[in-house]
Design goal:
With 293 residues, the chain is mainly alpha-helical. It has one domain (4-292). The chain is built from twelve helices and two strands; from the N terminus they run ααβαααααααααβα. Strands 1-2 form a two-stranded antiparallel sheet. The protein is globular. The N and C termini lie far apart (40 Å).
Amino acid sequence: MVNAEKRPIYWENILFLILTHILGAAAIYWFVKVRFSWWTVGLSTVYLVLSALAISAGYHRLFSHRAYKASWLVRFFHLSFGAAAWQASVMDWASDHRIHHAETDEELDPYNIKKGFWWAHWGWLVYRIKRDWANAKDLRADALVDFQDRHYFSMALFFGMLLPMLVAMAWNDPVGALLGAGFLRLLVQYHATFCINSWAHMFGRQPYSTKTSARDSTTAAILTMGEGYHNYHHRFPADYRNGVRFHQFDPSKWMIWTLSKIGLTWDLKMTPQRDIDNAVEAVRQAKEESVHA
């Protein structure tokens, strides 16, 4: 990977981000001035939740970290609504994310927070990334993953734009659905997801490790279906839970656990409690030593 200054500009990303913001704003105008429909608002909300879960529980925990195993039905859901999130195929997403974990806060980190909040939030998307697909070759063995990678654009277009329009034809508001469930939902989800790369590497607590910039943020967790407990995740990335404590807001964890009870997910990886306690104690001792140094 080369420095950002030497990388080619990713004009497709730039134009799509601009379009998303324009049409996301147009959705608000549509709801206020043209036609307001509770059905369309409900559809947009459901789409936001489903696509966020597909990124969190699917792209992230299932495919990138192999934190559990899932049936073809669950994988198909994650790949379909993950495509609807318009964040690249899972092959590309997982490759970027695995590099991020291997090179956190270093030059090769795609969304290195040391380059600034806005770089980590979305500046890195302005440039094309030289991906190391070799670090995700294990995913290629999954026929569904391979299919999504080869047909990503078609799946993103269908599940992210056309399907909500078809559903909204039931109450004669396909345009509202395209704007609301398509672009306004996408706009909200983009910034929610981006905040894990930016906010959760700059603001919050570090109870499990201070070796990287990753932090726990309840605010980010609420926005992303549980992804905000980022300090824990960077310390124990293979755990299917991000919010390890019972009371922490982590719908992805709850969904994965619930599906395991009906046989749709299995082999859920959990960090032993003694390892978690040891990590917390190590951070506490390090802080005490720094105070008395």
